């Protein structure tokens, strides 16, 4: 994802992308990273919900994982980064409506431009990666709705919904470089999220095996090149990503101590804008060389200072809601 966005300094990151050229315009490096993120998300969030059926607790955990860093990132972008890098006088920067509209991003409703700010493409858009978070929340809500209705443990209901999303995506998706209605984007991304969820739910029928993992890679490449990726890539990607994630690598013990992935995802866009303003890199490689270490350092700080502490209080929103509901006469049951 970071490489993909840094490349925009010199290249058209859709038309010049290697996967876009090879894969019949099905995907790009950046969009593949998004799809991988959705597969991982589906695989990781499903176990707790499937075991407890506690939808409020599940959404509470999701809220405390996603929203604290998103809120801090948006506020820091508007009130720290923006005034430092804008080409406008600071007073004029804060007098523009776009500056205040950027705060909408906290709700995942997008308004990405900041006045006088220049990104790697020459536009004033900041942190385009934020567009995925609305769809991430929608996927969470779909899964939660199934659990609330008692339809998650009978796995066939999620399987049918996932198959429907695949069919809908197959008839509507025409590859990268086009603009799609939200329903079509959601169907495509839910195909990946749902594949991760189903892989957990059907883990006994589809256990990890190195031969199957080895088969996934050429099949993925074949599906992209033949145009069938929209149908088979979600399941293959989910199996490959989850399988590799379950392997105990030499660095697994170290990696378990911190999870900077979300921080890298959210912070690299603002860092790119800052590097453009202060270092003026002349190439995509130079931009990446500046951006990656700064982003990684900030992501580690974010994990230890903000994200990990927030996760220690992941039940707090649910507890607040339960107390409010109790005052209205509602009583929590085991499945609530």
Beta content = under 5%
Order of helices and strands: HHHHHHHHHHHHHHH
Query: Sheet bearing the most strands, described?
Result: none
Spatial separation of the terminal alpha carbons: 38 Å
Counting DSSP E segments of at least 2 residues, the number of strands comes to 0
Total helix count?
A: 15
- Can you give the mean pLDDT? 89
Describe this structure as you would to a colleague:
The chain has helices at residues 2-7, 18-22, 29-52, 55-85, 90-95, 97-101, 131-148, 156-172, 182-201, 210-226, 229-246, 252-255, 261-278, 284-311, 316-327. With 336 residues, the chain is an all-alpha fold. The protein has one domain. Helix 13 crosses helix 14. The mean pLDDT is 89.
Map the helices and strands.
Blueprint: H1 2-7, H2 18-22, H3 29-52, H4 55-85, H5 90-95, H6 97-101, H7 131-148, H8 156-172, H9 182-201, H10 210-226, H11 229-246, H12 252-255, H13 261-278, H14 284-311, H15 316-327
Helix pairs in contact: 3-4, 3-7, 3-9, 3-11, 4-7, 4-13, 4-14, 4-15, 7-9, 8-9, 9-11, 10-11, 13-14
Summarize the structure.
The chain has helices spanning 2-7, 18-22, 29-52, 55-85, 90-95, 97-101, 131-148, 156-172, 182-201, 210-226, 229-246, 252-255, 261-278, 284-311, 316-327. The protein is mostly helical.
Keywords, separated by commas or semicolons:
mainly alpha, 336 residues, 15 helices
């Amino acid at each position: 994802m970071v490489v993909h966005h840094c490349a925009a300094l010199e290249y058209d990151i859709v038309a010049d992308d290697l996967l876009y050229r090879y894969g019949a315009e099905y995907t790009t490096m950046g969009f593949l990273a998004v799809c991988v993120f959705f597969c991982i998300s589906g695989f990781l969030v499903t176990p707790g919900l499937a075991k407890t059926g506690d939808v409020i607790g599940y959404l509470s955990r999701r809220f405390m994982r996603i929203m604290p860093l998103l809120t801090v990132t948006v506020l820091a972008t508007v009130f720290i980064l923006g005034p430092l890098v804008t080409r406008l006088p600071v007073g004029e920067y804060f007098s523009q409506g776009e500056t205040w509209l950027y705060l909408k991003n906290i709700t995942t409703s997008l308004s990405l431009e900041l006045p006088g700010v220049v990104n790697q493409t020459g536009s004033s858009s900041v942190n385009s990666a934020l567009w995925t978070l609305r769809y991430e929340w929608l996927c969470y809500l779909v899964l939660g709705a199934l659990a609330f209705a008692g339809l998650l443990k009978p796995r066939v209901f999620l399987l049918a919904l996932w198959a429907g999303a695949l069919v809908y995506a197959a008839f509507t998706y025409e590859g990268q470089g086009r603009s799609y209605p939200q329903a079509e984007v959601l169907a495509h991304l839910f195909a990946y999220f749902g594949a991760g969820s189903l892989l957990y739910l059907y883990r006994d029928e589809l256990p990890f095996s190195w031969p199957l993992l080895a088969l996934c890679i050429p099949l993925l490449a074949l599906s992209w090149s033949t145009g069938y990726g929209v149908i088979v890539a979600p399941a293959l990607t989910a199996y490959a990503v989850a399988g590799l994630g379950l392997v105990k690598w030499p660095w697994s013990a170290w990696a378990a101590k911190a999870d900077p992935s979300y921080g890298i995802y959210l912070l690299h866009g603002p860092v790119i804008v800052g590097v453009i303003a202060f270092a003026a890199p002349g190439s995509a490689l130079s931009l990446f060389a500046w951006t990656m270490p700064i982003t990684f350092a900030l992501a580690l700080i974010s994990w230890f200072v903000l994200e990990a502490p927030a996760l220690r209080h992941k039940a707090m929103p649910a507890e607040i809601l339960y107390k409010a509901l109790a005052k209205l006469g509602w009583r929590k049951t085991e499945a609530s």
